[in-house]
Write the C-alpha cells for this entry.
Amino acid sequence: MSSEPRFVVDAKGGLTPVGPGTSTLQPQSLWSLANTSPDWMVFLRNPSIGGVVQSRPRVVMAGDCGAFPLSDLIAFLGQSRWTGLLKLQSVEAERQLGLKEGEVRWAHSDAHAERIGEVMVRLGYVTRPQLEGVLNDTPPSRVGRALVEKNLMQAHDLWKCVTEQVSEIFHAMMLCKEGAFTAIDEELDDKSVHNLNISMQSLLMDSIRKIDEMAHFRKKIPTPRVHVGKKRPSDGKLEPEEDQVLALLDGHKTVFELGQAARMSEFDITRVVYRLLEGGFAQVSTHPIASAPQAAPPVASAPAHAPAPSATASDSGWKPPSSDETKVLNVFNFIFREVRNEVARRGKLEDFMQSANAALSSGTLSPSPMLSGIQFQPDGSLPEKAVLEAYRRHAPSLGSEPVASFKQALSDVMFFLLFQAGELLESRADEDLARRVKELLATLEIQ
C-alpha cells in the first residue's frame, strides 16, 4: 500500500496532499469529520451519493483497536471466509495478516522481535553470530533459505520458525488495545498465498488460551528475565519436556535462555517452568541462584494397569466411509508428484526429498498420527496402502468427519512441500506450480 495518498492536516482542518500518488477530496462535496481516536480519521459525504468503488485494493472496514476485542473482528473475517489484508497500526509496530478465504496465509510485522531471524534465535535454531554472519551478504527476505543452504538449520526447522512467527504476530495483534485497524479488499496472488495455510480458528483458540494462561503464569514468573534454579531432581514422573528443561536448570539461565536451549517459544517455556515451580522442582530469582546438587533420577515404576488398547474399527462398530479417503489421497499424491517433478527439473531433487522425509519423521508437518512412520516414495508420493491403513486404524478417534481430518493432514504436508519448492524454484516456475496445484485442489471440492 505504498501508493496510498498522504495528507497534512493544518491548524484550520484543511488537507494538503503530500508525496507521490496524492489526491484531494472532491471540492464540490460537503464532508463531515467524525469523532475518532487519535490514530485515524473518518470523513463522511453529506448527502451520500452511494455506490461501490470497483477498483481494488480498497478499504472496506476500519476502526479503533480499543473499541472492542480484535478477536471478535478476526473471528468474523474467518467465519465470512474473507480474502484480503488486515492491517493494524499501533504505537509499537505495524502488523499485517494476509487472509485467503478466511485462513491465514502470511503475516508481517516491523517489530524487531517478530522478524524471522529473531524467532530463529529465540527458539535456539541458530545463534546470534550465525544469523548476523548470514545477514551480512543476504537480504532479510532470504535469510531462512540461506541458513538452510549453509547447513546451519534443517528445512523443517525453518518451517517451524515461519509458522511460529505467524503465530506470534497473530498473538500480538490480539493483545493490541490502541491504534487503528483497516481491512483492505485485495486478492492475494498465488505467489503470496501458497506457502502457508493456517487455520484461523486454531490461531484464535490458541491465542485466547495463551492470554488466559500467561496471566496465570505471570503471578510466579513475572518476566522471562528471571533466573531459574533446581531445587530437587526428577522423581521419574515428569513429562518428557519437563525433564528436558529440569536438566538444563543451573541457576544461571533465565527463562528466556532456557527457551533458547530447549527450542521452545516464550509461552511454552514459561508453562514448563511454572509446572516445575508448582511441583517444587525449581525456584526463580531476579539474580543467579545456586541449584540443588545433581542426583540420579529414580527409575519410574511400571504402571499398575496396562493402558487400554485404542479403539479399532472392529470393536467400536465404526465402518469406514466409501472410498472418499482414497480419492483424497490420490489427488494429494498427484500434487506431491507434481511438486517433486518440478523440483527435479531444476536439478535440486536430492536435498528436497531428504528435507521432506526429515520433516515427516520429525512430526513437524502435522500432529496427525496417521502420518507417523510414513516416508515419501522415490516418485514423490506417499505409499497408498500404508497411509490408508493408518487412516482406517485411527479414523474412530478423528471425530464425526474423519475424511476432513485426513484431508487436513495431507494439506499440511502439501503446504510444506510448496514452501520448500518456493525457496528452490525461480519465480515463474513457482507461480506456475501454484496454479496447477490450485486446479488440482479444486477437483476435491466438486467430488
